[in-house]
Amino acid sequence: MAAAALRAWFWNERFWLPHNVTWADLAGEPGPPGSGLQYPRAGHVLSAFPLALGIFAVRLLFERFIAKPCAIKLGIQDSGPHRAQPNAILEKVFTSITKVSPASNSAGNGHL
Fold first, then answer.
1. Which of 12, 60, 66, 80 lies 20 to 30 A from 34 at CA?
2. Which InterPro entries does this chain map to (predicted)?
3. Cα 52 versus chain centre, distance
């Protein structure tokens, strides 16, 4: 009983939908009669995963077989990530504004 009331409250049409649309309007495949519209379905979201996987595969193939050989021919070398050089001024500013100990900072109080 409580779960049904909570579900009815959460999925209230007045909150989620415009005043002239109901959940029943969205339940059918086609949109309003004669409009030529088709509303998205929950299953359409799942089609994004294979598409993303395909784009990722194309990126990997491009990097391995096109970009890397071109970079080698142009003499560009992979130097990897660079480490930041020590900066005494930045360290001094950081230590001056951090007055909270690291243990209490991990509690999520929002201070540096």
1. 12
2. Lag1/Lac1-like
3. 13
Contact (Cβ atoms closer than 8 angstroms) between residue 54 and residue 61:
no
Ramachandran angles phi, psi of 46, nearest 5°? -65, -20
Greatest mean pLDDT among 7-11, 44-48, 69-73, 104-108 lies in 69-73
d(CA 12, CA 5): 11
What's the token pair of residue 23? 């959940």
CB 38 within 8 A of CB 29: yes
For the chain, the residue count is: 112
Tokens at 53, concatenated: 């996987």
Domain ranges within the chain, ordered by starting residue: 42-77
Mean of all residue pLDDT scores within the chain? 83
Contacts of 30 (CB under 8 A, 6+ apart): 37, 38, 39
DSSP 61-76: HHIIIIIHHHHHHHT-
Where residue 56 falls (left for φ over 0; alpha for ψ -120 to 50; beta otherwise) is alpha
